[in-house]
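Researcher: For the record, we're logging two predictions in this thread. I'll number them. Prediction 1 follows.
Model: Prediction 1, sequence and structure:
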Amino acid sequence: MREEYTLETVDIETLYKIVIEKQRAGYRLAQICATAFEGYNELIYSFALDYTFENYKVIVPIESEINTISDLFPSAMLFENEMKELFGVQIKSINPDYQNKLYRIASPTPFKKEVKEAVKVVKEGE
C-alpha cells in the first residue's frame, strides 16, 4: 500500500472543473485551507479517495469573489464560512452562510492582509 499525494497550482475556473470531476468520481472533500498574504489569499482544496490525496492551490486576490462549492460538497460550507470570516475571502452563495457569526472574535477578518503598496500576484512559473 502506497499513499499518493499531489499538489497542483490551478486558476479558479480550473478548480471549479476539478471539483465537479472529484464529486462525480466519489472523492470526499478533506479540507480547505487558507493562508493570507499581502493583497491575496492562497487557498488549498484537498480531496481524498482511498489512499489518494489530491491538493489544488488557487491564488485569490482580496478584491476577487469566488463561488461556493458547498452545493457539491456540503461540508465545504464550514471551511468557506471560516475563510470568509477570518481571512476576508469573498465567497458567493455559501449554504448556509453564517454571516460572520461562526466564531466569537474581537475584530472582523483578523487574518486578512491588506495591500500596503502596489503588489502584483504572479502564479508559479511566470
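Researcher: Logged. Prediction 2.
Model: Prediction 2, sequence and structure:
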Amino acid sequence: MLNNFELEKYRSCDICSIEKSDLVDLCSVEVNRDMPLESRISEYIKAVKNPYLFRVGDVGVKINCIGNKDLMDAIVNIC
C-alpha cells in the first residue's frame, strides 16, 4: 500500500502536464476479483502506477475525492 506522502505526491500531479500516452489505460488493467480486497487494491495500484491519474481509451482521467470519501473508498468500488 502507498503511504500518505506517496498518495499526496500522486494526488497533486497535474493531469494537464502529463502526456495521455504516459497514463495507464484502465481498460488494460485486470484485477483478480477472487483475491482478498487488500490484495486487489495492491494489484490495482501497481498496475495503474498513479491511482489518481489514468486514462480510459483516449480520455485522461483524474480522480478527486470529496466529502467523507477518500481514495481507498473509490478504489474499492473499482476493484
